[in-house]
Amino acid sequence: MTIDSSRRAALVGFGSLAVGAGALATGPSRADTTKPIIPPGARELSELMERLRTTPRRRDFKTVPMILEHPDFWDDEALREIIAYSGTRKQVWDNTNVAGPWLNLMRNSINAQIFSFGHKDFLAVSATHGTAHLALFDQPMWDKYELAALAGAKFKTNTLIVPKPVPAAFTENEDPKSVFGPDGDTIPALQQRGVVFMACHNAIWEVTAKLAAAGKNPDHASHEAVAAELTNHLIDGVVLTPGIVATIPELQQVGFHYAA
């Protein structure tokens, strides 16, 4: 992929997101379709969620390179908001197994931080890669590229992005059938509660390689084009990073506690 010299000059450091309005998709980029489930008085978390809700994501890629060298290829502005989060309690989860208990563990952590320890502004971040990353693609990509074959026998469709109609009032926190119980183990429910799901460009590139090896390329597109299409179909609210393994230390450096 080529980048013209004027655009290259505009990209100054990690803090830049120099993309024009035409490069910002209004499609799968924001989690603003559901009401947040945030503890009363959680000012820092509420403000972060609002900033992330209104921070644009670029989802109009035609091709993407193997290694991202410029901030306009990932969600730089949203990532910087997370890194700058002012809350004192924050945790980054290294999630790699789509069939594992990763959503359950994050839910339990949030519950204990909020209801047991009283840390209303607790922020949980999912550093998502491995097969867990498959859950961050929308159902059309699962259908087109038969991603269930990579996810394993437990998944015929991407059930983790399907919300359940369960009670969400904080007075229902002891109800196991509420969003605070196992029925809250969905990505939309956790996003409503303030969990940020981070995507990994490297994981997208590797998924694309697996699809090519399996002959799952109905458009006969290039590796760069298929990776771009998958990127464009990340679910609402996801924050794309240039690479999760490299992003985790950035979060640890500013006080995020690591959990696997």
Can you offer a commentary on this structure?
The protein has helices at about 5-10, 45-55, 75-85, 100-115, 140-145, 150, 185-190, 200-215, 225-230, 245-255, and strands at about 90-95, 125-130, 195-200, 240, 255-260. The protein is α/β, with parallel strands linked by helices. A five-stranded parallel sheet has the order 4-3-2-1-5, with helices on both faces. α8 packs across α9. The longest helix has 15 residues, at about 100-115. The radius of gyration is 18 Å and the shape is globular. Mean pLDDT is about 90; it is low at about 1-35.
Q: Calculate the terminal CA-CA distance, rounded to whole Å.
A: 35 Å
What portion of residues belong to β-strands?
Answer: 5-15%
The rounded Rg comes to 18 Å
- Written as H for each helix and E for each strand, in order along the chain, the element string is HHHEHEHHHEHHEHE
Output the structural class.
Answer: alpha/beta
Q: What kind of sheet is the major sheet? A: 5 strands, parallel
Please give a handful of descriptors for the protein shown.
260 residues, alpha/beta, 5-stranded parallel beta sheet, 10 helices, globular
